[in-house]
Amino acid sequence: MAGARRPLALCRSWLFLPGAEAAALRAAPALGADVLIQELEDFCPPDRRPAARGLCRDLFAAWRAAGALAAVRINPLEDGGREDLAAAMAGQPDLVLMSKVAAPEQVAALAAALAALEAAPIRTAPIRTTIVPNIESAAGVVRTLAIATASPRVGACLLAAEDLAADLDAERTPEGTELAHARSRFLLECTAAGVVAIDCPFTFGDLAAAEADLRRARALGFKAKSIVNGDQVALVNRLLTPSAAEVAKAGRMVAAFEAARARGEDRAEVDGLFVEVPTYLAAQRLLRRAAALRAAPSPDSSAPRGRARP
């Protein structure tokens, strides 16, 4: 029986795991990530993909039972992805991420392939898998809105870091200035499409630098972060959950604004900030999200923390 799990909109941490490393995959729920992703693309050498595909059926059931959303990242359909998908669907993943999506037609093809596999006679219960396109190129970034709206199955999009930097011929730095515009545009287009925007992974080992990167992403508006280093899971979950101080401040802002309006005034001042209608609505959103995160089930994180990086 699968454990209770978070809805997609409340999933903060999306952890990639090496697709053929059976021990690391089985131990992954202890890291506490909201979404666990079996990697069948770059972090899984081609000669190990057949073995990785064979793990899907039992692996995803175990992840669901531990309270995590079970996901898989497949290669593009024209480059081994159909074989990846057929194997993965034996485990009925909650989410299928497809790499190197640069056009809406790729999403439409994946949706059609999923529908055919879901209708296969071997199914004992109806399932409907969510699609998460991975945007990894300049062409993909400028088409994010079209990609995100190419199928009703798309519930989120994920921005890659290394492939995008390579496509731009940019120098990859811990500060991430080379991807600043792409991250902002990606978030803008995902928001316009009404899907979850998953920020690119921080691929350096320095936790202090990882925190700085995550704070920049949070300031932009990101609520979800992809991870390739298990040491960063707790950091992501903490910083993408409103803190007690943030909740208290938002509560003061709401109360002050409502009191001001009751007096016939147009705004209120809280901690030197003028609270007007947009600020008031943002504070209400923060309070609702904090309450929803408190009420949401958490993945199993009872085991000791450890490293899990592809």
TrEMBL record:
Record's superkingdom?
Answer: Bacteria
Q: Which GO terms describe its biological process?
A: oxaloacetate metabolic process
Q: Where does Mg(2+) bind?
A: 136, 163
Instruction: Indicate the segments forming the HpcH/HpaI aldolase/citrate lyase domain, all copies.
Output: 12-229
InterPro entries given in the database record = Aldolase/citrate-lyase_domain, Citrate_lyase_beta/mcl1/mcl2, Pyrv/PenolPyrv_kinase-like_dom, Pyrv_kinase-like_dom_sf
Pfam families in the record, alphabetically? HpcH_HpaI
What keywords tag this UniProt record?
A: Lyase, Magnesium, Metal-binding, Signal
Tell me which positions the record assigns to the signal sequence: 1-22
Quote the record's binding site residues for substrate: 73, 136
| Molecular function in Gene Ontology | lyase activity; magnesium ion binding
**Cofactor dependency:** Mg(2+)
Family classification: Belongs to the HpcH/HpaI aldolase family.
Under which name does UniProt file this protein? CoA ester lyase
